[in-house]
Known about the structure:
By secondary structure, the protein is α/β, with parallel strands linked by helices.
Amino acid sequence: MSEEATIDLRSDTVTRPSAGMYQAILDATVGDDVYGEDETVNRLETTAAQLLGKEAGLFLSSATQANLTAMLAHNARGEEILLGDQYHIYTDEAGGCSALGGIVMHPLPTDESGGLSVPQVLDAIKEDDPHQPITRTLALENTVSGQVQDPEHHRALAEAVRAQGLKVHLDGARLMNAAVALNMTAAQIVAPFDSVMMCLSKGLGAPVGAMLCGSTSFIKTARRLRKQLGGGMRQAGILAACGLYALEQNIARLVFDHDRARQLAEGISNIAGLPVRHQTNMVFIEPEAKDLEPLRLHLESHQIVIGRQKPRIRLVTHLDIDSAGIDRTVTAIHSFYR
Length: 338
Protein backbone atom coordinates (compact mmCIF):
# COMPACT_ATOMS: atom_id res chain seq x y z
CA MET A 1 0.00 0.00 0.00
CA SER A 2 1.50 3.35 -1.01
CA GLU A 3 1.78 6.32 1.29
CA GLU A 4 -0.89 8.08 -0.78
CA ALA A 5 -3.47 5.31 -0.63
CA THR A 6 -6.55 5.70 1.55
CA ILE A 7 -6.88 3.20 4.38
CA ASP A 8 -10.56 2.36 4.83
CA LEU A 9 -11.24 0.70 8.20
CA ARG A 10 -15.02 1.14 8.20
CA SER A 11 -15.80 -2.44 7.21
CA ASP A 12 -14.54 -5.49 5.35
CA THR A 13 -17.27 -4.82 2.77
CA VAL A 14 -15.28 -2.01 1.16
CA THR A 15 -12.81 -4.30 -0.63
CA ARG A 16 -12.29 -4.17 -4.40
CA PRO A 17 -12.05 -7.29 -6.60
CA SER A 18 -8.50 -8.51 -7.13
CA ALA A 19 -6.97 -9.13 -10.55
CA GLY A 20 -7.65 -12.84 -10.14
CA MET A 21 -11.30 -12.16 -9.35
CA TYR A 22 -11.66 -9.94 -12.42
CA GLN A 23 -10.18 -12.75 -14.50
CA ALA A 24 -12.72 -15.16 -13.02
CA ILE A 25 -15.48 -12.82 -14.21
CA LEU A 26 -14.06 -12.85 -17.74
CA ASP A 27 -13.79 -16.65 -17.75
CA ALA A 28 -17.27 -17.31 -16.31
CA THR A 29 -19.68 -19.53 -18.21
CA VAL A 30 -23.13 -17.98 -17.86
CA GLY A 31 -26.74 -18.79 -18.62
CA ASP A 32 -30.17 -17.81 -17.30
CA ASP A 33 -30.12 -18.67 -13.61
CA VAL A 34 -33.90 -18.33 -13.21
CA TYR A 35 -34.11 -21.29 -15.59
CA GLY A 36 -31.34 -23.04 -13.66
CA GLU A 37 -29.02 -22.76 -16.66
CA ASP A 38 -26.13 -20.72 -15.30
CA GLU A 39 -23.30 -23.23 -14.85
CA THR A 40 -21.22 -20.94 -12.67
CA VAL A 41 -24.09 -20.23 -10.28
CA ASN A 42 -24.85 -23.93 -10.08
CA ARG A 43 -21.22 -24.67 -9.29
CA LEU A 44 -21.11 -21.99 -6.60
CA GLU A 45 -24.26 -23.35 -4.96
CA THR A 46 -22.88 -26.90 -4.96
CA THR A 47 -19.48 -25.77 -3.69
CA ALA A 48 -20.96 -23.73 -0.84
CA ALA A 49 -23.29 -26.56 0.22
CA GLN A 50 -20.39 -29.00 0.33
CA LEU A 51 -18.24 -26.52 2.24
CA LEU A 52 -20.96 -26.16 4.88
CA GLY A 53 -21.93 -29.83 4.94
CA LYS A 54 -25.50 -29.19 3.78
CA GLU A 55 -27.56 -30.79 1.03
CA ALA A 56 -28.12 -27.71 -1.12
CA GLY A 57 -27.29 -24.04 -1.52
CA LEU A 58 -28.83 -20.89 -2.97
CA PHE A 59 -27.04 -17.78 -4.26
CA LEU A 60 -28.67 -14.50 -3.20
CA SER A 61 -27.85 -10.87 -3.78
CA SER A 62 -27.01 -10.01 -0.16
CA ALA A 63 -26.73 -11.35 3.37
CA THR A 64 -29.84 -9.38 4.34
CA GLN A 65 -31.85 -10.97 1.55
CA ALA A 66 -30.53 -14.41 2.52
CA ASN A 67 -31.46 -13.99 6.19
CA LEU A 68 -34.90 -12.66 5.27
CA THR A 69 -35.46 -15.56 2.89
CA ALA A 70 -34.52 -18.03 5.62
CA MET A 71 -36.86 -16.43 8.13
CA LEU A 72 -39.73 -16.46 5.64
CA ALA A 73 -39.04 -20.13 4.92
CA HIS A 74 -39.05 -21.11 8.59
CA ASN A 75 -41.89 -18.92 9.87
CA ALA A 76 -45.47 -18.10 8.90
CA ARG A 77 -46.99 -14.67 9.48
CA GLY A 78 -47.57 -14.03 13.17
CA GLU A 79 -45.02 -16.61 14.29
CA GLU A 80 -41.97 -15.71 16.31
CA ILE A 81 -38.21 -15.93 16.13
CA LEU A 82 -35.93 -15.69 19.15
CA LEU A 83 -32.61 -13.92 18.62
CA GLY A 84 -30.01 -11.79 20.39
CA ASP A 85 -30.66 -8.09 20.85
CA GLN A 86 -27.27 -7.36 19.24
CA TYR A 87 -27.75 -9.69 16.26
CA HIS A 88 -27.79 -8.27 12.76
CA ILE A 89 -31.22 -9.62 11.81
CA TYR A 90 -32.72 -7.55 14.62
CA THR A 91 -30.52 -4.44 14.57
CA ASP A 92 -29.42 -3.85 10.99
CA GLU A 93 -31.83 -5.38 8.47
CA ALA A 94 -34.52 -2.67 8.55
CA GLY A 95 -36.98 -4.89 10.40
CA GLY A 96 -37.53 -6.86 7.21
CA CYS A 97 -38.81 -9.98 8.97
CA SER A 98 -41.64 -7.99 10.53
CA ALA A 99 -42.24 -5.47 7.74
CA LEU A 100 -42.29 -7.96 4.87
CA GLY A 101 -42.98 -11.27 6.58
CA GLY A 102 -45.25 -10.36 9.47
CA ILE A 103 -42.86 -12.26 11.74
CA VAL A 104 -42.52 -11.32 15.41
CA MET A 105 -38.93 -10.79 16.56
CA HIS A 106 -38.26 -11.44 20.25
CA PRO A 107 -34.80 -10.03 21.11
CA LEU A 108 -33.01 -11.52 24.11
CA PRO A 109 -30.17 -9.74 25.96
CA THR A 110 -26.78 -11.09 24.90
CA ASP A 111 -23.91 -11.52 27.33
CA GLU A 112 -20.50 -9.85 26.96
CA SER A 113 -19.40 -12.50 24.48
CA GLY A 114 -22.47 -12.00 22.30
CA GLY A 115 -24.07 -15.25 23.42
CA LEU A 116 -27.38 -16.47 24.79
CA SER A 117 -27.85 -19.08 27.53
CA VAL A 118 -29.88 -22.27 27.23
CA PRO A 119 -32.20 -21.43 30.18
CA GLN A 120 -32.71 -17.91 28.81
CA VAL A 121 -33.77 -19.21 25.41
CA LEU A 122 -35.97 -22.01 26.77
CA ASP A 123 -37.74 -19.54 29.09
CA ALA A 124 -38.57 -17.36 26.08
CA ILE A 125 -40.38 -20.11 24.14
CA LYS A 126 -44.10 -19.38 24.29
CA GLU A 127 -46.70 -21.81 25.55
CA ASP A 128 -49.50 -22.89 23.21
CA ASP A 129 -51.73 -19.94 24.06
CA PRO A 130 -53.93 -18.02 21.60
CA HIS A 131 -52.80 -14.76 23.23
CA GLN A 132 -49.20 -15.31 22.15
CA PRO A 133 -47.33 -15.91 18.90
CA ILE A 134 -46.04 -19.40 18.21
CA THR A 135 -42.28 -19.54 18.76
CA ARG A 136 -40.92 -21.20 15.64
CA THR A 137 -37.22 -20.39 15.16
CA LEU A 138 -34.04 -19.57 17.05
CA ALA A 139 -31.67 -17.35 15.04
CA LEU A 140 -28.04 -17.26 16.23
CA GLU A 141 -24.96 -15.50 14.88
CA ASN A 142 -21.23 -16.27 14.48
CA THR A 143 -19.18 -14.11 14.72
CA VAL A 144 -20.94 -11.47 16.85
CA SER A 145 -19.20 -8.10 16.45
CA GLY A 146 -16.05 -10.06 15.68
CA GLN A 147 -16.41 -12.33 18.70
CA VAL A 148 -16.22 -16.05 17.94
CA GLN A 149 -19.04 -18.08 19.44
CA ASP A 150 -18.40 -21.49 20.99
CA PRO A 151 -19.64 -24.18 18.58
CA GLU A 152 -20.38 -26.59 21.43
CA HIS A 153 -22.56 -23.99 23.13
CA HIS A 154 -24.39 -23.40 19.85
CA ARG A 155 -24.90 -27.15 19.60
CA ALA A 156 -26.39 -27.21 23.11
CA LEU A 157 -28.74 -24.35 22.23
CA ALA A 158 -29.80 -26.05 19.01
CA GLU A 159 -30.47 -29.38 20.68
CA ALA A 160 -32.45 -27.72 23.47
CA VAL A 161 -34.80 -25.79 21.19
CA ARG A 162 -35.11 -28.52 18.59
CA ALA A 163 -36.50 -30.74 21.34
CA GLN A 164 -39.22 -28.07 21.66
CA GLY A 165 -39.97 -28.21 17.93
CA LEU A 166 -38.04 -25.12 16.82
CA LYS A 167 -35.86 -24.64 13.75
CA VAL A 168 -32.39 -23.14 14.15
CA HIS A 169 -30.77 -20.65 11.76
CA LEU A 170 -27.24 -19.26 11.77
CA ASP A 171 -26.40 -15.80 10.52
CA GLY A 172 -22.85 -16.70 9.52
CA ALA A 173 -21.98 -13.46 7.73
CA ARG A 174 -18.40 -13.85 8.97
CA LEU A 175 -18.54 -17.60 9.54
CA MET A 176 -15.19 -18.14 7.85
CA ASN A 177 -13.51 -15.75 10.26
CA ALA A 178 -14.78 -17.98 13.06
CA ALA A 179 -13.62 -21.12 11.27
CA VAL A 180 -10.11 -19.73 10.78
CA ALA A 181 -9.92 -18.48 14.38
CA LEU A 182 -11.09 -21.85 15.75
CA ASN A 183 -9.05 -23.93 13.27
CA MET A 184 -12.23 -25.86 12.48
CA THR A 185 -14.07 -26.55 9.26
CA ALA A 186 -17.16 -24.50 8.59
CA ALA A 187 -19.14 -27.73 8.28
CA GLN A 188 -18.20 -28.68 11.85
CA ILE A 189 -19.32 -25.32 13.17
CA VAL A 190 -22.70 -25.28 11.39
CA ALA A 191 -23.61 -28.96 11.76
CA PRO A 192 -26.36 -28.27 14.36
CA PHE A 193 -28.18 -25.71 12.21
CA ASP A 194 -31.14 -26.25 9.89
CA SER A 195 -30.06 -23.31 7.74
CA VAL A 196 -26.94 -21.19 7.40
CA MET A 197 -26.25 -17.86 5.74
CA MET A 198 -22.68 -17.08 4.69
CA CYS A 199 -21.78 -13.69 3.22
CA LEU A 200 -19.35 -13.54 0.29
CA SER A 201 -18.70 -9.78 0.44
CA LYS A 202 -17.61 -9.53 4.08
CA GLY A 203 -13.97 -10.47 4.45
CA LEU A 204 -13.99 -12.88 1.51
CA GLY A 205 -13.65 -10.02 -0.94
CA ALA A 206 -16.48 -10.65 -3.40
CA PRO A 207 -18.26 -7.49 -4.60
CA VAL A 208 -21.74 -8.82 -3.86
CA GLY A 209 -23.66 -11.88 -2.77
CA ALA A 210 -24.37 -14.40 -0.02
CA MET A 211 -25.09 -18.11 0.23
CA LEU A 212 -27.99 -19.77 2.00
CA CYS A 213 -27.58 -23.48 2.65
CA GLY A 214 -29.73 -26.21 4.17
CA SER A 215 -31.74 -29.26 3.22
CA THR A 216 -32.93 -29.82 -0.35
CA SER A 217 -36.54 -29.15 0.63
CA PHE A 218 -35.61 -25.96 2.52
CA ILE A 219 -33.66 -24.59 -0.45
CA LYS A 220 -36.54 -25.41 -2.79
CA THR A 221 -38.79 -23.24 -0.62
CA ALA A 222 -36.09 -20.55 -0.34
CA ARG A 223 -35.71 -20.41 -4.14
CA ARG A 224 -39.41 -19.60 -4.54
CA LEU A 225 -39.16 -16.96 -1.82
CA ARG A 226 -36.10 -15.43 -3.47
CA LYS A 227 -38.19 -14.99 -6.62
CA GLN A 228 -40.99 -13.34 -4.62
CA LEU A 229 -38.45 -10.93 -3.15
CA GLY A 230 -37.24 -9.93 -6.60
CA GLY A 231 -34.00 -11.85 -6.26
CA GLY A 232 -34.21 -13.89 -9.44
CA MET A 233 -31.06 -12.97 -11.39
CA ARG A 234 -30.31 -13.89 -15.00
CA GLN A 235 -26.67 -14.22 -16.16
CA ALA A 236 -25.59 -14.16 -12.53
CA GLY A 237 -22.54 -16.31 -13.20
CA ILE A 238 -20.54 -13.10 -13.58
CA LEU A 239 -21.18 -12.47 -9.87
CA ALA A 240 -21.08 -16.13 -8.88
CA ALA A 241 -17.58 -16.40 -10.37
CA CYS A 242 -16.45 -13.84 -7.79
CA GLY A 243 -18.03 -15.93 -5.05
CA LEU A 244 -16.31 -19.09 -6.25
CA TYR A 245 -12.98 -17.30 -6.40
CA ALA A 246 -13.57 -16.00 -2.86
CA LEU A 247 -14.28 -19.49 -1.50
CA GLU A 248 -11.31 -21.00 -3.29
CA GLN A 249 -8.73 -18.26 -2.67
CA ASN A 250 -9.73 -15.98 0.19
CA ILE A 251 -10.65 -18.17 3.16
CA ALA A 252 -7.19 -19.26 4.32
CA ARG A 253 -5.85 -15.72 3.98
CA LEU A 254 -8.30 -14.43 6.63
CA VAL A 255 -5.60 -15.27 9.17
CA PHE A 256 -3.67 -12.26 7.85
CA ASP A 257 -6.63 -9.98 8.57
CA HIS A 258 -6.74 -11.35 12.12
CA ASP A 259 -3.00 -10.80 12.52
CA ARG A 260 -3.29 -7.21 11.30
CA ALA A 261 -6.16 -6.51 13.68
CA ARG A 262 -3.98 -7.84 16.48
CA GLN A 263 -1.11 -5.68 15.24
CA LEU A 264 -3.38 -2.63 15.34
CA ALA A 265 -4.78 -3.43 18.79
CA GLU A 266 -1.33 -4.01 20.27
CA GLY A 267 0.03 -0.87 18.62
CA ILE A 268 -2.49 1.42 20.33
CA SER A 269 -3.11 -0.53 23.55
CA ASN A 270 -0.73 1.69 25.55
CA ILE A 271 -2.57 4.96 24.81
CA ALA A 272 -3.98 6.32 28.07
CA GLY A 273 -7.71 6.94 28.01
CA LEU A 274 -8.36 4.82 24.91
CA PRO A 275 -9.93 1.43 25.75
CA VAL A 276 -9.16 -1.16 23.07
CA ARG A 277 -10.74 -4.56 22.39
CA HIS A 278 -9.75 -6.96 19.62
CA GLN A 279 -11.54 -9.96 18.12
CA THR A 280 -10.77 -11.71 14.80
CA ASN A 281 -10.57 -8.92 12.19
CA MET A 282 -12.15 -6.20 14.33
CA VAL A 283 -10.69 -3.69 16.77
CA PHE A 284 -13.01 -1.61 18.92
CA ILE A 285 -11.83 1.65 20.43
CA GLU A 286 -13.77 3.90 22.78
CA PRO A 287 -12.47 7.46 22.73
CA GLU A 288 -13.83 10.02 25.15
CA ALA A 289 -16.89 11.80 23.79
CA LYS A 290 -14.97 15.02 23.24
CA ASP A 291 -12.41 13.17 21.10
CA LEU A 292 -14.77 11.25 18.79
CA GLU A 293 -15.12 13.76 15.97
CA PRO A 294 -11.65 15.33 16.31
CA LEU A 295 -10.05 11.87 16.10
CA ARG A 296 -12.08 10.99 13.01
CA LEU A 297 -11.10 14.24 11.31
CA HIS A 298 -7.45 13.84 12.34
CA LEU A 299 -7.32 10.38 10.78
CA GLU A 300 -9.12 11.64 7.69
CA SER A 301 -6.35 14.20 7.25
CA HIS A 302 -3.96 11.25 7.15
CA GLN A 303 -6.17 9.50 4.56
CA ILE A 304 -7.48 6.98 7.09
CA VAL A 305 -11.25 6.45 7.16
CA ILE A 306 -13.07 5.11 10.22
CA GLY A 307 -16.73 4.63 11.09
CA ARG A 308 -19.03 7.05 12.88
CA GLN A 309 -20.23 4.68 15.61
CA LYS A 310 -20.66 6.00 19.17
CA PRO A 311 -19.35 5.51 21.77
CA ARG A 312 -17.27 2.58 20.45
CA ILE A 313 -15.74 2.81 16.99
CA ARG A 314 -15.16 -0.35 14.98
CA LEU A 315 -11.95 -0.67 12.97
CA VAL A 316 -12.07 -3.59 10.53
CA THR A 317 -9.12 -5.14 8.72
CA HIS A 318 -9.48 -6.77 5.31
CA LEU A 319 -7.58 -7.87 2.22
CA ASP A 320 -7.02 -4.31 0.98
CA ILE A 321 -5.06 -3.36 4.12
CA ASP A 322 -1.47 -4.57 4.58
CA SER A 323 0.91 -4.33 7.54
CA ALA A 324 2.29 -1.00 6.29
CA GLY A 325 -1.24 0.39 6.37
CA ILE A 326 -1.62 -0.76 9.96
CA ASP A 327 1.67 0.91 10.88
CA ARG A 328 0.40 4.16 9.32
CA THR A 329 -2.81 3.90 11.33
CA VAL A 330 -1.00 3.23 14.61
CA THR A 331 1.29 6.20 14.02
CA ALA A 332 -1.61 8.49 13.16
CA ILE A 333 -3.63 7.52 16.24
CA HIS A 334 -0.60 8.04 18.48
CA SER A 335 0.01 11.46 16.91
CA PHE A 336 -3.53 12.51 17.87
CA TYR A 337 -2.99 11.61 21.54
CA ARG A 338 0.40 13.30 21.92
